[in-house]
Amino acid sequence: MGWESCGPNEVLVVSGCGHGDHPVYVPGGRVYVWPFQTFQRISLNVMTLNVVSPKVFTNQGVAVSVTGVAQVKVDASHEQMLRTACQQFLGKSEREIENIALETLEGHQRAIMGTMSVEEIYQDRQKFSEKVFEVAKSDLVNMGINIVSYTIKDISDDHGYLLALGMPRTAEVKRNATIGEAVANRDAGIKAAQADEMRMSAKFVNDIEVAKAQRDFELKKAAYDGEVNTRKAQSELAYQLQAAKTKQKIKEEEMQIKVIERKQQISVQEQEIKRRDRELEAQVKRPAQAEKYRLETIAEANRSCAGSSNVMFSS
Asked: What is the pTM of this model?
């Protein structure tokens, strides 16, 4: 012996010395078990039961078969129910507990079927399920078992009663379906025509808008092209005018260059004349003047000498 534990899906029941007539219930936990004590486990798992009641006569004497599905489990949320479940099922396997709960549910299901008509069971399954649930619940609670859910899975019979029961409804459904289909087709045709009309109207409106947009585009494009051509002509005219001004300026500058060149030529010629005049003066005029001056000086000297001689002779 020693520490014993259990998962959250089971209860550990410890009894023996130290606990008197009331065992200790440990749902999902651990407890220390002394050598002079004993322990057992009981499952808290949900058990799914297929409750089959074949060929049960209803209050009309019609034999039908019903299959229900129930979810049951040992309820550990209430200590009294847990104590009751332990008293009933402790030491039994989960399969044995399922069989006991199944027999209880199947008996109540058969009993409820015998108090109702086939139409009630077939057409109001919720009512049938609630009756079975309420009747079986009290018995199972007394065993410590709680019904989590119960519902009808299938209803059948071997004589075609349910099929015949459904034929008027089937015919009605088919008739309503045919009428509904015709009405739907009619409405669909009307709506299709309306849709076509709206589509054509929308198309005409769209075509008009497109034509307006095209017209506005053409007008704006023509105005733009005219403005572009005007600007282009102005630009070309301005270019030609500027080109003419540039050519004129070039010609004027060429004339200025020619004038400057001519002035430079004249200046060069004048400088050359001046140089030649200076050269002539230096080489011809000045020597001639010097020679003239020398000759005049000599002549003057000669005249002076001749006069002195004459004076002496006169004396």
From this structure: 0.48
